[in-house]
Every structure is written in structure tokens, then in C-alpha cells.
Amino acid sequence: MQLYILRHGIAVDRTTTANDSARPLTVEGRREMRENAKGMLALRLTFDTILSSPYKRARETAAVVADILKIKTRNILLTENLVPEASFESLLKEIKTNLPKSDSILLVGHEPHLSGLISFLLIGRPSIAINFKKSGLCCLSIEKLSGPGCASLNWLLAPSQLRMIL
């Protein structure tokens, strides 16, 4: 399985709303995400499913990617297991239970949760320091989704690198 992990695009400042989960992407964040998704298209990435945090900025990021890559919106699933405080184990259980035949999954979420998830999948604990920028994309290979330490790192691209691929 290829597991792709995408940090949401640039969102409006936290001070603009009392509800963090309602913060949308900025105009710049949406534009940058469209360019980054075109980089994904140039890499010929495909996803069986997109799992996204239900937070607005993550949903909007997932929708931009789906639009550029021509992925049906029914293949975007929202999960509480990608919110900032979610359990890595619960996310893995959800993937194993609900998407057992998926070969390529895109996860869209937030920092520092995603860096912790990457570290957890690579070494079994969320302790690797990863500079995971907004709109950055990581690719992990997983032979068997068995839990901590089950993944290998293929690559981690900064947003500027994704845009250079065009």
C-alpha cells in the first residue's frame, strides 16, 4: 500500500474565528494547493480514497486535490481520526477495517498530528522531528498495515518542490 500524507493548505488566521475547525483556506492557500495538486498530477499520483479531517481547511484541501486529479467526491471520506488530537491506532484500525483493498490512500490533516503519525509508522513512536510544511506531501510504503514501525519512507516533498514538478 502507498500511504500519502498531505498537510492542509494555508488557512485563515486562528484569531478570525472562535471555532478552529471552521477556519477555511485563504485565497493564497487555495491557489497554492491547486498548483501543488498539479504537481501531484504530473507525478501521476492516483488515490483509491482520500481520508480527510472534518475540519474545513482539510476538507477544502481534499476537494482541491480531488478536482485537479479528477477523483470522484464520493471517494473523499471524513474521519475524526485525522483531527489534531486523534489516536494513531484508531486511524490504522479504520483504514484496515474500512479500506482493506485500497492500494493508494491520501490522508489530509494537521500538524503536529501528521508528523507524529509519520514517525509512528516509521519507528513506532511519534518522536522524529519532521519539518512538514502546509501543503507538503509525504509518501510511505506499507507492506502490511500492522501497526507501529510498519512503513518505509519513500519521500517527503515541500510545497515548493511539488510546484517545481510541473
How would you explain this protein's 3D organization?
Helix content is 35%, strand content 19%. It has 166 residues and is an alpha/beta fold. Strand 5 and strand 6 form a beta hairpin. The longest helix is centred in the N-terminal third of the chain and has 16 residues.
List low-pLDDT spans.
none
Helix content: 25-40%
Strand/helix succession: EHEHEHEHEEH
Helix tally equals 5
Features:
single chain; 166 residues; alpha/beta; six-stranded mixed sheet; 5 helices; 6 strands
Walk me through the topology.
Layout lengths: L1 E6 L19 H16 L6 E4 L3 H14 L6 E3 L9 H11 L5 E6 L3 H11 L13 E6 L8 E7 L1 H6 L2
Parallel strand pairs: 1-4, 2-3, 2-4
Antiparallel strand pairs: 1-5, 5-6
Helix pairs in contact: 1-2
Short description:
It contains 5 helices and 6 strands, in the order E-H-E-H-E-H-E-H-E-E-H.
